[in-house]
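Propose amino acids for all 224 sites.
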């Protein structure tokens, strides 16, 4: 695979867009991961986890290349520190997907029927939030070509607002499923509750990082 380093001759925004793509590829595998887990198909869940882990590693490689090749003297249309903070925050989406794979591979736990519909709605909302985040942040090279001004910026800021709304919807779904988890404590025990509470927390964190990353992009645009 050809190194992305040559892209730095102009700017880091091409590599940042590549990193965005790798991260989102990781996040979309959360759905099949949960489908396998809910179906108690533990071998398939392990297969999906391995796929997530490989993609997260590819995202890490791009992240490290960006960090290693972003010299302090490079002229950027946005602040260098903001670029690095943005990179770290969007990388956290892929980290969250991998963390979910780790958690769901630790304990073969049945998913009560009462939780399944709400859980998958929550999963889908998180992925939809990531999808809009991806659509927004992959446009970094286009924004640069437009000198971070004009109608492209207006569209980006509007999408950032939509991402915030979608993350809020994810929060509400997380709260609903968490209540269902606690309602199962008497039947399934405290370890069950602890396990699911952590899974839901990490899953919600993926949407949170999508919102944070989008907010950082808006901040970079606002400083122009």
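Proposal:
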């Amino acid at each position: 695979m050809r190194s992305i380093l040559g892209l730095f001759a102009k700017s880091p925004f091409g590599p940042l867009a590549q990193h965005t793509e790798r991260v989102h590829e990781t996040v979309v595998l959360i759905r099949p991961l949960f489908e396998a887990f809910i179906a108690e198909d533990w071998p398939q869940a392990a297969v999906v986890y391995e796929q997530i882990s490989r993609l997260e590693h590819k995202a890490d490689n791009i992240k490290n290349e960006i960090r290693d090749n972003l010299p302090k003297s490079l002229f950027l249309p946005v602040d260098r520190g903001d670029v690095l903070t943005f990179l770290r925050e969007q990388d956290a989406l892929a980290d969250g997907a991998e963390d979910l794979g780790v958690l769901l591979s630790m304990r073969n736990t049945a998913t009560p029927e009462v939780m399944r519909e709400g859980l998958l709605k929550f999963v889908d909302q998180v992925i939809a939030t990531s999808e809009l985040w991806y659509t927004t942040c992959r446009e970094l090279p286009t924004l640069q070509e437009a000198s971070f001004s004009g109608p492209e910026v207006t569209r980006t800021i509007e999408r950032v607002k939509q991402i915030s709304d979608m993350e809020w919807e994810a929060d509400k779904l997380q709260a609903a499923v968490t209540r269902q988890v606690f309602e199962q404590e008497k039947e399934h025990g405290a370890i069950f509750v602890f396990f699911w509470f952590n899974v839901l927390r990490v899953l919600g964190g993926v949407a949170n990082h999508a919102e944070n990353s989008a907010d950082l992009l808006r901040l970079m645009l606002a400083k122009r």
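Residues 39 and 175 are 23 Å apart (CA to CA). Residues 8-222 form a domain with the Methane Monooxygenase Hydroxylase; Chain G, domain 1 fold (CATH 1.20.58.220).
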